[in-house]
Each structure stands twice: as structure tokens, then as C-alpha cells.
Specification:
Largest sheet: 9 strands, antiparallel
Number of helices: 2
Radius of gyration: 15 Å
Strand content: 35-45%
Helix content: 10-25%
Shape: globular
Number of strands: 9
Order of helices and strands: HHEEEEEEEEE
Oligomer: single chain
Length: 157
């Protein structure tokens, strides 16, 4: 768990202390709300991430439902806020509602994801994919990390 979250924390720490894979195909059409009655096969939120070229570890385990609109605006719902620690000193928090806008290789306007650095909770606003790297942005600072660090979804405490 620490392996795929430590890069996120390092990026946020850099902010406090001081994406682009060319798509070969057009953006996939958004799926209906998970559990929708018009669909015989409904993708999970984690499977939907892969349609936009993101690994499942961008979200913690336990997503109950999601909605995605034609413009890429999305909302993912969890049963409760999700907290977990990384390297015994950093706390990560996902709200019970995470939202933003997704398109191939880009999540922008991200809401509901924070990392505690020192005494402050800092929000991550954007995640982009650039080849085999994920670029995390918070404010004016960005940092890239291997996509493989996000191959497994973290477990909530």
C-alpha cells in the first residue's frame, strides 16, 4: 500500500515545503450510472478508470457507485470517508464523495482527495497520465510517478 501512495505524499510535501499518452482512439463514451437498468453489463468505477487510461489504484477500495456525464464530469461514492496511513507518518483521506472531470489521460477539478502534510490537509486537484507516469498536481507544483505505483487500490481503515 505504501508503495503506490508514497509518490502522492512526496508531491504534496514538495508543495508545502517550498499527461500525456497520445490517444489512438477517440474518448470512450461514458457508461450509464453504475447499476443502471438499461445496461446488461455495468462497469465498476475501477473498470471505467481503465477506459480513460488510468490504473485502479487512483481510487481506494470500496467504491459503491459512480455517475459519469457525457462531458466527463463524474462522481464516485464510498460508504464513508476513507482514511489510511502511509509510511506511518502520512494520512490520506478520500471523502465519501469524490468528483471531477475525466477524459483520456486527464482528471481535472478533483474534489474529495487530501493528504495531511505536517499539520495541514492539502487537496490534489489534477491527475494526468504521461506515458508510464502519473502527474499529480496541487496548486502550482506537479510531480510525476510511475503508473505501476497505482496498480492496486489502497484499503481504507
Amino acid at each position: 500500500m505504501a508503495k503506490h501512495l508514497l509518490p502522492l505524499l512526496v508531491a504534496v510535501a514538495a508543495i508545502v515545503l517550498t499527461a500525456t499518452v497520445t490517444a489512438q482512439a477517440p474518448a470512450p463514451a461514458p457508461a450509464p450510472e453504475a447499476g443502471g437498468s438499461n445496461s446488461t453489463t455495468t462497469l465498476t468505477a475501477y473498470e471505467m478508470l481503465s477506459r480513460y487510461d488510468f490504473p485502479p489504484g487512483v481510487l481506494p477500495e470500496g467504491a459503491e457507485s459512480y455517475k459519469i456525464q457525457q462531458d466527463g464530469s463524474f462522481q464516485v461514492n464510498f460508504p464513508d470517508d476513507c482514511h489510511f496511513r502511509v509510511a506511518k507518518q502520512y494520512s490520506v483521506r478520500y471523502s465519501s464523495r469524490v468528483a471531477g472531470k475525466i477524459q483520456n489521460d486527464s482528471i481535472s477539478g478533483l474534489e474529495g482527495v487530501k493528504v495531511k502534510v505536517l499539520f495541514a490537509w492539502v487537496g490534489i486537484g489534477e491527475v494526468g497520465r504521461d506515458g508510464d507516469k502519473l502527474k499529480l498536481k496541487a496548486g502550482l507544483i506537479s510531480q510525476s510517478f510511475p503508473v505501476d505505483d497505482f496498480s492496486v487500490s489502497p484499503q481504507c481503515n
